[in-house]
């Protein structure tokens, strides 16, 4: 790396280094560079890095890397931030049709920066006796529902790491979400997430809150589900079907430009 221009975006505290790579000059095999750029002490600092690339059949392609430097699966908050970045670059106006790791996505961005991102259909959920509920919302997620007034004091790092590296999930691992139902009707579900690839708790996880919302629908939650992460509020809407599947899944929330700069190395 010599000189690299970047933008920083965040979606409810889930932050990303964004790079305009429409010229396809970024070496996607250089995981050490990605890891350095995401390092919060030695680099720019982020939960992940995203390339926006041209694609012949879509408005753009989103290439997502985890903070550990390796290519990741779908990132919901990252997808929303990429849509906002694409509008800033004048690649799109207020609608997007783009390609991500898990396939095509559609999105709409409002004037206030709220992005409504259509997620993939989810075939259902699996009850795991030992770990909780498993769903794949573009990335693998375990959801554990906790008793009232216990989430705030939970050691998310220790509990999440134990599930992520358990024998059941082996080397592939999983993301792990801990959720608490609202005490009164109309209040948001509380969510905290341990993210694979970051290997720590993040302030928010888009595919994670999507997983929580879908799992919560089998526990009385109705679409749209409002959820509160440590980084802010998100909303998930969907259609639930008798066979346990979910379609028309949308993740909605803010996507905010933070700053831009140039890094040398």
Automatic annotation (TrEMBL):
Q: So where does substrate get bound? A: 14, 66, 76-77, 175, 195-196, 206-207
Protein EC:
5.1.1.7
Which reaction equations make up its catalytic activity?
Answer: (2S,6S)-2,6-diaminopimelate = meso-2,6-diaminopimelate
In terms of Pfam families, this protein maps to: DAP_epimerase
Q: Where in the cell is it found?
A: Cytoplasm
Q: What class of enzyme is it?
A: isomerase
Pathway in which the depicted protein is active: Amino-acid biosynthesis; L-lysine biosynthesis via DAP pathway; DL-2,6-diaminopimelate from LL-2,6-diaminopimelate: step 1/1
> Which keywords fit this entry according to its UniProt record?
Amino-acid biosynthesis, Cytoplasm, Isomerase, Lysine biosynthesis
Catalytic residues identified in the record: 75 (proton donor), 205 (proton acceptor)
| Site label Could be important to modulate the pK values of the two catalytic cysteine residues, positions | 141, 195
Q: Which InterPro entries match?
A: DAP_epimerase_DapF
From which domain of life does this come?
Bacteria
The job of this chain, per UniProt, is described as: Catalyzes the stereoinversion of LL-2,6-diaminopimelate (L,L-DAP) to meso-diaminopimelate (meso-DAP), a precursor of L-lysine and an essential component of the bacterial peptidoglycan.
PANTHER family in the cross-refs: DIAMINOPIMELATE EPIMERASE (PTHR31689:SF0), DIAMINOPIMELATE EPIMERASE, CHLOROPLASTIC (PTHR31689)
Question: What HAMAP family is this protein classified in?
Answer: DAP_epimerase
Which family, according to the similarity comment? Belongs to the diaminopimelate epimerase family.
**Subunit details:** Homodimer.
Q: What name does the UniProt record give this protein?
A: Diaminopimelate epimerase
Q: Which organism is it from?
A: Hymenobacter cavernae
| Native organism taxonomy | Bacteria, Pseudomonadati, Bacteroidota, Cytophagia, Cytophagales
């Amino acid at each position: 790396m010599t000189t690299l221009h970047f933008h920083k975006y965040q979606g409810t505290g889930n932050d990303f280094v964004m790079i305009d790579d429409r010229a396809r000059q970024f070496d996607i095999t250089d995981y050490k560079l990605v890891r350095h750029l995401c390092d919060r002490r030695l680099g720019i600092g982020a939960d992940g890095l995203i390339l926006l690339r041209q694609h012949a059949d879509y408005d753009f392609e989103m290439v997502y890397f985890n903070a550990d430097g390796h290519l990741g699966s779908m990132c919901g908050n990252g997808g929303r931030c990429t849509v906002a970045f694409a509008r800033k670059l004048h690649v799109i106006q207020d609608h997007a049709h783009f390609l991500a790791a898990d396939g095509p996505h559609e999105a709409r961005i409002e004037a206030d920066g709220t992005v409504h991102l259509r997620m993939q259909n989810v075939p259902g959920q699996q009850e795991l006796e030992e770990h909780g509920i498993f769903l794949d919302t573009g990335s693998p997620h375990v959801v554990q529902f906790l008793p009232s007034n216990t989430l705030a004091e939970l050691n998310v790092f220790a509990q999440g790491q134990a599930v992520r590296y358990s024998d059941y999930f082996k080397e592939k691992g999983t993301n792990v979400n801990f959720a608490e139902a609202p005490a009164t009707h109309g209040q948001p579900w509380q969510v905290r997430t341990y993210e694979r690839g970051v290997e720590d708790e993040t302030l928010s996880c888009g595919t994670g809150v999507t997983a929580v919302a879908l799992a919560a629908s089998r526990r009385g939650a109705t679409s749209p589900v409002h959820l509160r992460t440590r980084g802010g509020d998100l909303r998930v809407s969907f259609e639930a079907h008798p066979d346990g599947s979910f379609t028309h899944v949308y993740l909605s929330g803010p996507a905010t430009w933070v700053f831009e700069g140039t890094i040398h190395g």
